[in-house]
Design brief:
The complex is a heterodimer. Chain A is α+β, with helices and mostly antiparallel strands. Helices cover 39% and strands 11% of the residues of chain A. Chain B has helices at residues 21-47, 49-53, 57-62, 66-75, 78-106, 113-135.
Chain lengths: 301, 141
């Protein structure tokens, strides 16, 4: 049984998060995204104002959710279907809040993953209104109704909104996602310092929360199970671009990436970059690794 | 072990409304690429009539050699004139989007990739519209 009390859960974290990031110097890409977010926020506030006005006139303010249901273990539920839920709307309610309310109030068999509810754990990537989004980071006021909630595409559905993530995790492990320097410092307690510039370079790539949204949105990964996928390549980027690891280790990483189903499968559709809930410029990272791979194979200069 | 349910592909064209700019660029680039490959064969077939026409100086001077007759016959068809406009559209888009992809490969302006896609679409449209008088000259006369 869930311990969540829906009444007290208003999601303000996503907004706080974007405000904090304003303090650092921003890349043009980041600025652009921030501007879009600010616009979205203004839009949201406008809608909230309208909704408040509507609430003053009528009092039946509910959100209509259409949720994908499927349970292979119950005979009557083996045929996938959509269930309708009408959840009372509260200001700042996210899709995840609504799902939690629906589960706790209407149907305790509704199954979905969630944990931190603040876009850090990466458990609740869902296909909401035709797009991969984090349930906890998506405001209901931003969506057209009815809100369609489906499990992530291109993954096997286990039950309701839960998909099998094993393949995604396998791909993530395949790029050896851990720091492994060629040489360790002499003293046992010596730190392995990174320059500020280098940290800035890998900054965005470190923000991956392993939610699988990019992998699910990728057309190529859908048709080719051996393709590493945007998340894994981004993970590899984070370590390959880390100057502390040394050339030998970097060469080893590039050897993994430049194989047939590595970086070269990417056809720059930008789907992953569009859906990433942490705004990681995935395509940019993949393209940079392509250039690195070419550079490491050109021996004549 | 529970059995899983396969829901098909998101890329089904039934969901085209959900495609983003980058996806459309990819779809169009593939499509125009295949059209150009197809055109290449027709192009070679038509041009190869010049082989049998070669050397027939008299026929060429009288403008009734194989090559000239084939070309004039084709150009007199309205369908061919309209297809030529289509071919130009396909080629121009493929060229412009190819330049866009070149920039993407070099890592230049990846944040405005959607804008450069729209720009190539608009530019293609403008060039095609401007070419219509040339391609359809005398057809309706």
């Amino acid at each position: 049984m869930s311990t969540h009390v829906p009444e007290t859960e208003t999601e303000t974290d996503t907004e706080a998060e974007t405000e904090v990031e304003h303090s650092e110097p921003l890349a043009p890409a980041q600025e652009e995204r921030m501007r879009k977010k600010a616009e979205a926020r203004a839009d949201r506030e406008e809608r909230a104002r309208q909704e408040a006005a509507e609430r003053a006139t009528g009092d039946d303010d509910t959100v209509h959710l259409k949720v994908f249901r499927f349970d292979p273990e119950v005979e009557g539920k083996q045929e996938p279907r959509f269930d309708d839920f009408h959840v009372p709307y509260e200001k700042g309610m996210t899709v995840l809040d609504a799902l939690i309310y629906a589960r706790d109030t209407f149907d305790s068999s509704l199954t979905f993953r969630h944990s931190c509810r603040q876009a850090i754990c990466g458990s609740d990537a869902l296909f909401i209104n035709g797009r991969q989004r984090l349930g906890c980071k998506t405001q209901l006021s931003d969506l057209d109704q009815p809100v369609r909630v489906e499990p992530l595409p291109h993954a096997e559905v286990e039950k309701d909104l839960v998909v099998d993530m094993d393949h995604f995790y396998d791909q993530m492990e395949a790029v050896e996602p851990y720091f492994d320097a060629d040489e360790l410092p002499d003293g046992e307690l010596d730190e392995q310092r990174q320059t500020r510039e280098n940290r800035e370079k890998v900054k965005m790539s470190t923000r991956c929360i392993w939610c699988g949204a990019c992998m699910s949105s990728c057309n190529i990964a859908a048709g080719n199970n051996e393709y590493l996928g945007p998340a894994a390549i981004n993970k590899a980027y984070r370590f390959a671009m880390d100057e502390r690891e040394g050339t030998e280790r970097k060469q080893h990483r590039l050897n993994i990436l430049e194989q047939e189903n590595g970086v070269w499968r990417c056809q720059t559709q930008f789907s992953c970059t569009e859906v990433c809930p942490k705004d990681i410029p995935l395509t940019e990272h993949i393209q940079e690794l392509k250039r690195e791979a070419v550079k490491s194979n050109l021996k004549f200069w | 072990m529970s059995q899983s349910y396969d829901r098909g592909l998101v890329e089904d064209f039934g969901r085209w409304r959900e495609f983003s700019a980058g996806m459309w660029a990819w779809v169009f680039h593939k499509f125009t690429g295949w059209v150009l490959v197809g055109y290449l064969f027709t192009h070679i077939a038509v041009l190869s009539t010049a082989i049998s026409a070669a050397g027939q100086t008299q026929a060429i001077a009288a403008e009734n050699d194989v090559y000239t007759t084939v070309i004039t016959a084709l150009e007199s068809l309205l369908v061919v004139r309209i297809l030529e406009v289509g071919l130009l559209a396909v080629a121009v888009f493929h060229i412009l989007n190819g330049c866009r992809l070149l920039l993407v490969d070099l890592g230049i302006g990846l944040d405005s990739q959607d804008k450069s896609f729209y720009a190539s679409l608009v530019l293609t449209g403008a060039i095609v519209v401007a070419s219509v008088p040339t391609f359809l000259a005398g057809v309706f006369g």
